[in-house]
Design goal:
Blueprint lengths: L2 H8 L1 H13 L7 E2 L6 E2 L5 E5 L11 H4 L5 E5 H10 L11 E6 L6 H8 L5 E4 H8 L14 H16 L7 E6 L4 H11 L1 E5 L4 H11 L1 H13 L6
Parallel strand pairs: 5-7, 5-8, 6-7
Antiparallel strand pairs: 1-2, 3-4
Helix pairs in contact: 6-7, 9-10
The structure holds zinc ion (ZN) (2 copies).
């Protein structure tokens, strides 16, 4: 399908160029200004690079298109979706189903962020939502009865399979999870052909939010930060 493009977005050259542009394009107040809406991009994870001349299988090897800073705009995720809609990048023949693996600590704001960027035609795999879809009303708000675990995991795997083979008419897919371990995360991202989005909320903030829920959640946050292994340099 779009394998060459997918490989390009994972390439060292692309990653390095984006790192550089993110530094070069920081304004006086310390933020990158979105080249679509003109507002600052407050979180690094909310910044995405958009190719003005869209990348295709034919031009992806052409550095004058793919790696040309003048052809690249840094924009908010939300604005990126809007650009692609408005300029008809989404018409049937050119539809590209993009998958994002959104990871980070419990209480880091993964679901909130996805809800702020996802469109009605996007699909979301959020294990917490699968739990709430099947547990009874007598359960606590965040309860995960162990007896239901295998069913919830089967639902997750079924959804992941659909996303993996791009079954359906959805546009973007957001797969939400903790995924603290680098190896596990990379393997899943590879198998889904997904781009990684790290919700890098500081531990203190996650803990503060966890306290509002209950003591289990502070343990989940502690546990995540203990296990977390960052991307290899
Ligand atoms: Zn914007
Ligand atoms: Zn784009």
């Amino acid at each position: 399908m779009n394998e060459k493009r997918q490989a390009f977005y994972k390439s060292r050259q692309w990653e390095n160029l984006i790192k550089l542009l993110r530094i070069e394009r920081v304004s006086e107040d310390g933020f990158v200004i979105c080249e679509h809406c003109g507002k600052p991009i407050l979180k690094a994870y909310d910044c995405i690079a958009h190719h003005v001349i869209e990348l295709t299988e034919d031009n992806v090897d052409d550095a004058a298109v793919a790696l040309n800073p003048e052809n690249i705009k840094l924009v908010h995720f939300r604005c990126h979706n809007e650009i692609h809609k408005r300029f008809g990048y989404g018409n049937q023949a050119r539809i590209i189903q993009q998958v994002y693996l959104v990871y980070g600590s419990p209480c880091s704001g993964k679901t909130t962020w996805v809800d702020s960027v996802a469109e009605p035609e996007d699909i979301i795999m959020d294990i917490d939502k699968l739990w709430s879809a099947v547990r009874s009303g007598s359960c606590g708000l965040y309860e995960k009865p162990p007896e239901l675990k295998s069913n919830v995991f089967s639902m997750r795997d079924c959804l992941l399979d659909m996303i993996r083979v791009r079954r359906g008419k959805w546009h973007n897919a957001y797969v939400i999870g903790g995924y603290p371990l680098q190896g596990e995360r990379e393997r899943l991202a590879d198998s889904l052909n997904a781009r990684l989005v790290f919700i890098d909320t500081p531990k203190e903030v996650c803990l503060e939010r966890a306290k509002q829920k209950n003591s289990d959640w502070t343990d989940f946050v502690e546990n995540w930060f203990e296990r977390y292994s960052p991307p290899l340099p």
